[in-house]
């Protein structure tokens, strides 16, 4: 999935899934590094989406 096509909910669900696998020690070392990078990317997507939503809400409230 690309950054533009994944929703906030999908990103959070994927993060939770990866964290569960890490906690259950179901990943080998090679997968672990890859999954940590993926979680980092997903967290950035979530932060960006939250920031954009906050900005949009602020603009709407300023119009009132």
How would you describe this protein?
The protein has 64 residues and is mainly α. It has a domain at 27-64. Helix content is 80%, strand content 0%. It has two helices and no strands. It has helices at 8-23, 29-63. Helix 1 (8-23) runs antiparallel to helix 2 (29-63). The protein is elongated, with a radius of gyration of 15 Å. The mean pLDDT is 91.
| Sheet with most strands | none
Judged by helices, strands and strand pairing, the structural class is mainly alpha
Summarize the helix and strand pattern as letters: HH
Which percent range describes the beta-strand content? Answer: under 5%
Helix content: over 70%
**Rg (CA only):** 15 Å
The whole-number mean of residue pLDDT values reads: 91
Separation of termini?
A: 37 Å
**What is the tally of beta strands?**
0
Low-confidence stretches: none
The general outline is elongated
Number of helices: 2
């Amino acid at each position: 999935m690309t950054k533009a096509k994944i929703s906030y909910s999908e990103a959070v669900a994927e993060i939770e899934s990866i964290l569960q696998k890490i906690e259950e020690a179901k990943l080998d070392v090679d997968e672990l590094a890859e999954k940590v990078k993926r979680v980092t990317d997903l967290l950035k997507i979530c932060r960006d989406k939250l920031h954009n939503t906050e900005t949009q809400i602020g603009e709407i409230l300023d119009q009132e």
